[in-house]
Amino acid sequence: MLWLCLCGPALALELNEQELAGKRLYREGLSSSDAQLLARVGPGDMSVPASVLPCASCHGNDGRGRSEGGVRPPSLDWQRLALGTGNREANNRRYPAYTEASLARVVRSGVDPAGNRLDPAMPRFELSLADQRNLAAYLKRLGEDRDPGVEEGTLRLGTLLPEQGPLAEAGRTVKAVLEDGVAQLNQAGGIHGRRLQLIALDPGPDSASTAQALDQLIQRERIFALIAPVAPLLDSRQLEQAGLPLVGATPRSGGSAQVFDPLPGVPEQLLSVALHARDSLGLARDAVQVIYAGEDQAQAAQWVQQRLRQLGFTGVSAQAFTGQALAGAGIVFLGRAQAFAELAASLQASGRNPYLLAASNQVAGAVPGLAPAWSRRVLLAYPFVPGDWTARGRATLAGVQQRQGLEPRQASLQVSTLCAWQLLVEALKQVGRDASREQLLGALEQLHDVDTGLTPLLGFGPGRRQGMAGAHVVAVSLPGPGYVEVAPYRPVPDTP
């Protein structure tokens, strides 16, 4: 038991009131008195608000310093600055050990304990005695204060993957892809000197067990971010409360500022199919209906209905399918494969043959059993197709499959997991050594036109949390079935 405690995640750093005030001053340039602090910059002592140039803007949240404009701010590690006796070295200077008094002097006047004047690029701050003491108190703890999951040599990630039930196979596939990514990255040296660690827990069968498993990842395992969970019942509000970023599929509970979904969801994909049917097949704007099977699809169906209306379709309704034949020259379907097969059979029995528009990842299992009468009448949305795969992308996918013993028939799930992994890794590289969840969110927002080699270009933005905004459209030929791409990927417009 002792071994488990010693080897487990580090406990959260608890700061007292003075240290918290010092942290606010260090990171945000804000005084404990709420009075505006001023910083003097350059040889002319130009005054600017300290919030514009807080200590962390140059020295980093971890105090290690990072080069900027040819200037390398020194490390603020208190162990190096102030403990022991004798001289210390930084920027080729020698100086005695710091005390709280000499620290206050260098912050105020830019002169170190040996009387050396520091680079004029360093701001000088007008601090009250209370602010000086707060800052010194926090700097003594700075080396310990990191976001959850960020340790000296390790960055800890988490995921939720079912071990039993209908999603167990998907869980094993995602785990294999993620473990392969971690192994390959660590073999290459990790990211900014840290090795990645992946912790996977089973979300269990329901929303309560999912919430409990996620809470365990957050509170006990103290993960930095969540990657590609297979947990449809995950509640995005729990992510928001913890400030935990997620790169992977959007939960059924809906989107969130914390969730970055590499690929479009089913509702977004269906818009591409409906637009193709209208623009290329002559489907009338008032001839489309949205049909869903299962209450878990109702919210998504209503969203599709609203977006179709915004895109110029008229008279669109969203109805539950209960076995009845339905009106409409085009039916946009949301639900599982069995219900899709029942819908096709019901329509055929009533002598109707409308276009059936669906997402491949929902209904592909029913397609081989459809009657020949549905040939070229079934249009499926695919977020990516093999034509998107470059030589590099194919090699990446084949390498994962070979190393992990994965079957090509699961390529769709493998690709979506690889996309999530690539986006997270790219954002972590941009964040740098000074990693925080807030910076990760910012780095993800700044990802644009990322070439995965397996999909159309992916990217996010301040108000955009899906890497793609559309889908390829594929027509089904029967019997067979055969699949023919009839419309390449194009982003769905926000307005008509």
Automatic annotation (TrEMBL):
<dbReference type="Pfam" id="PF13458">
    <property type="entry name" value="Peripla_BP_6"/>
</dbReference>
<feature type="domain" description="Cytochrome c">
    <location>
        <begin position="39"/>
        <end position="143"/>
    </location>
</feature>
<dbReference type="Pfam" id="PF00034">
    <property type="entry name" value="Cytochrom_C"/>
</dbReference>
<keyword id="KW-0732">Signal</keyword>
<dbReference type="GO" id="GO:0046872">
    <property type="term" value="F:metal ion binding"/>
</dbReference>
<comment type="similarity">
    <text>Belongs to the leucine-binding protein family.</text>
</comment>
<dbReference type="InterPro" id="IPR036909">
    <property type="entry name" value="Cyt_c-like_dom_sf"/>
</dbReference>
<keyword id="KW-0349">Heme</keyword>
<dbReference type="InterPro" id="IPR009056">
    <property type="entry name" value="Cyt_c-like_dom"/>
</dbReference>
<dbReference type="GO" id="GO:0009055">
    <property type="term" value="F:electron transfer activity"/>
</dbReference>
<keyword id="KW-0479">Metal-binding</keyword>
<dbReference type="GO" id="GO:0020037">
    <property type="term" value="F:heme binding"/>
</dbReference>
<dbReference type="InterPro" id="IPR028082">
    <property type="entry name" value="Peripla_BP_I"/>
</dbReference>
<keyword id="KW-0408">Iron</keyword>
<dbReference type="InterPro" id="IPR028081">
    <property type="entry name" value="Leu-bd"/>
</dbReference>
<protein>
    <submittedName>
        <fullName>ABC transporter substrate-binding protein</fullName>
    </submittedName>
</protein>
